[in-house]
Amino acid sequence: MNEFPGWLLLLALFVVATLAFIAGYYLYKVYKMRAQQKVALQELELKGLEQRARVNNSIQILAKAVGSEDLTITEASIRISVLLDGLSVSEEVKGEFSAFYQLRQATSHMPILEAWKALEKKDKKRLTKEREALEAQHVEFVHDAARRIIGRTF
Questions:
Q1: How many domains, in total, are found in the chain?
Q2: Would residue 35 count as lying in a domain?
Q3: 52-92 pLDDT, tens per residue?
Q4: Coiled-coil regions in this chain (predicted)?
Protein backbone atom coordinates (compact mmCIF):
# COMPACT_ATOMS: atom_id res chain seq x y z
CA MET A 1 0.00 0.00 0.00
CA ASN A 2 2.86 2.40 0.54
CA GLU A 3 4.17 1.71 -2.88
CA PHE A 4 4.24 4.76 -5.22
CA PRO A 5 2.91 3.93 -8.71
CA GLY A 6 5.58 4.23 -11.42
CA TRP A 7 3.24 5.82 -13.95
CA LEU A 8 2.52 8.65 -11.50
CA LEU A 9 6.25 9.28 -11.12
CA LEU A 10 6.67 9.36 -14.91
CA LEU A 11 3.75 11.76 -15.21
CA ALA A 12 5.27 14.03 -12.55
CA LEU A 13 8.66 13.96 -14.36
CA PHE A 14 6.95 14.78 -17.65
CA VAL A 15 5.10 17.73 -16.09
CA VAL A 16 8.30 19.04 -14.47
CA ALA A 17 10.26 18.63 -17.73
CA THR A 18 7.51 20.41 -19.68
CA LEU A 19 7.42 23.27 -17.18
CA ALA A 20 11.23 23.51 -17.24
CA PHE A 21 11.17 23.65 -21.05
CA ILE A 22 8.51 26.40 -21.01
CA ALA A 23 10.45 28.37 -18.38
CA GLY A 24 13.64 28.04 -20.43
CA TYR A 25 11.82 29.18 -23.56
CA TYR A 26 10.50 32.31 -21.84
CA LEU A 27 13.88 33.03 -20.25
CA TYR A 28 15.41 32.91 -23.71
CA LYS A 29 12.68 35.28 -25.03
CA VAL A 30 13.40 37.70 -22.17
CA TYR A 31 17.13 37.50 -22.89
CA LYS A 32 16.55 38.29 -26.58
CA MET A 33 14.17 41.13 -25.73
CA ARG A 34 16.69 42.69 -23.33
CA ALA A 35 19.41 42.40 -25.96
CA GLN A 36 17.16 44.18 -28.47
CA GLN A 37 16.33 46.86 -25.92
CA LYS A 38 20.02 47.38 -25.22
CA VAL A 39 20.74 47.85 -28.93
CA ALA A 40 17.77 50.22 -29.28
CA LEU A 41 18.93 52.22 -26.25
CA GLN A 42 22.44 52.52 -27.69
CA GLU A 43 20.99 53.74 -30.98
CA LEU A 44 18.87 56.32 -29.14
CA GLU A 45 21.87 57.52 -27.16
CA LEU A 46 23.86 57.87 -30.38
CA LYS A 47 21.03 59.80 -32.04
CA GLY A 48 20.79 61.98 -28.94
CA LEU A 49 24.50 62.76 -29.11
CA GLU A 50 24.23 63.52 -32.82
CA GLN A 51 21.26 65.83 -32.19
CA ARG A 52 23.13 67.54 -29.37
CA ALA A 53 26.09 68.09 -31.71
CA ARG A 54 23.75 69.61 -34.34
CA VAL A 55 22.24 71.96 -31.75
CA ASN A 56 25.71 72.95 -30.53
CA ASN A 57 26.72 73.61 -34.13
CA SER A 58 23.62 75.80 -34.62
CA ILE A 59 24.53 77.79 -31.51
CA GLN A 60 28.02 78.36 -32.89
CA ILE A 61 26.67 79.52 -36.26
CA LEU A 62 24.25 81.91 -34.59
CA ALA A 63 26.90 83.27 -32.22
CA LYS A 64 29.21 83.97 -35.14
CA ALA A 65 26.37 85.72 -36.98
CA VAL A 66 25.62 88.10 -34.09
CA GLY A 67 26.30 91.60 -35.34
CA SER A 68 26.00 90.70 -39.00
CA GLU A 69 23.39 92.27 -41.21
CA ASP A 70 21.75 88.88 -41.76
CA LEU A 71 20.53 88.49 -38.20
CA THR A 72 19.29 90.96 -35.59
CA ILE A 73 20.65 90.49 -32.10
CA THR A 74 17.08 89.98 -30.93
CA GLU A 75 16.58 87.05 -33.28
CA ALA A 76 19.99 85.64 -32.38
CA SER A 77 19.21 85.97 -28.67
CA ILE A 78 15.86 84.26 -29.02
CA ARG A 79 17.29 81.41 -31.06
CA ILE A 80 20.39 80.87 -28.91
CA SER A 81 18.43 80.95 -25.64
CA VAL A 82 15.84 78.49 -27.00
CA LEU A 83 18.62 76.16 -28.20
CA LEU A 84 20.36 76.36 -24.83
CA ASP A 85 17.06 75.56 -23.13
CA GLY A 86 16.64 72.61 -25.50
CA LEU A 87 19.99 71.28 -24.33
CA SER A 88 18.85 71.62 -20.70
CA VAL A 89 21.93 73.57 -19.70
CA SER A 90 22.52 74.33 -16.04
CA GLU A 91 21.40 77.52 -14.34
CA GLU A 92 25.07 78.48 -14.14
CA VAL A 93 25.35 78.42 -17.95
CA LYS A 94 22.08 80.34 -18.28
CA GLY A 95 23.48 82.93 -15.91
CA GLU A 96 26.72 83.14 -17.85
CA PHE A 97 24.81 83.87 -21.05
CA SER A 98 21.97 85.82 -19.45
CA ALA A 99 22.27 88.58 -22.05
CA PHE A 100 20.49 86.34 -24.55
CA TYR A 101 17.75 85.55 -22.06
CA GLN A 102 17.35 89.19 -20.99
CA LEU A 103 16.90 90.47 -24.53
CA ARG A 104 14.56 87.60 -25.31
CA GLN A 105 12.47 88.49 -22.27
CA ALA A 106 12.51 92.21 -23.10
CA THR A 107 11.13 91.55 -26.59
CA SER A 108 8.82 88.66 -25.73
CA HIS A 109 5.70 90.81 -26.13
CA MET A 110 6.46 91.47 -29.80
CA PRO A 111 4.63 89.41 -32.39
CA ILE A 112 6.56 87.11 -34.70
CA LEU A 113 6.03 85.27 -37.98
CA GLU A 114 2.41 85.38 -39.17
CA ALA A 115 1.35 87.74 -36.37
CA TRP A 116 4.06 90.19 -37.48
CA LYS A 117 2.95 89.96 -41.10
CA ALA A 118 -0.62 90.72 -40.06
CA LEU A 119 0.35 93.98 -38.33
CA GLU A 120 -0.34 97.34 -39.90
CA LYS A 121 2.60 99.33 -41.21
CA LYS A 122 2.50 101.88 -38.39
CA ASP A 123 2.51 99.11 -35.75
CA LYS A 124 5.44 97.40 -37.45
CA LYS A 125 7.32 100.69 -37.50
CA ARG A 126 6.60 101.39 -33.82
CA LEU A 127 7.63 97.88 -32.75
CA THR A 128 10.76 98.01 -34.91
CA LYS A 129 11.80 101.24 -33.18
CA GLU A 130 11.09 99.67 -29.80
CA ARG A 131 13.11 96.56 -30.72
CA GLU A 132 16.01 98.67 -31.94
CA ALA A 133 15.98 100.68 -28.69
CA LEU A 134 16.01 97.46 -26.65
CA GLU A 135 18.82 96.10 -28.80
CA ALA A 136 20.81 99.29 -28.23
CA GLN A 137 20.51 98.72 -24.47
CA HIS A 138 21.69 95.10 -24.74
CA VAL A 139 24.06 95.17 -27.72
CA GLU A 140 27.34 95.17 -25.79
CA PHE A 141 26.23 92.38 -23.46
CA VAL A 142 24.91 90.24 -26.32
CA HIS A 143 28.09 90.73 -28.36
CA ASP A 144 30.19 89.80 -25.32
CA ALA A 145 28.08 86.70 -24.67
CA ALA A 146 28.33 85.73 -28.35
CA ARG A 147 32.14 86.01 -28.25
CA ARG A 148 32.28 83.89 -25.08
CA ILE A 149 29.96 81.19 -26.40
CA ILE A 150 32.02 80.60 -29.55
CA GLY A 151 33.97 77.39 -29.20
CA ARG A 152 31.89 76.11 -26.26
CA THR A 153 30.11 72.80 -26.30
CA PHE A 154 27.10 72.14 -24.10
A1: 1
A2: yes
A3: 999 999 999 999 999 888 899 999 999 999 999 999 999 99
A4: 117-144
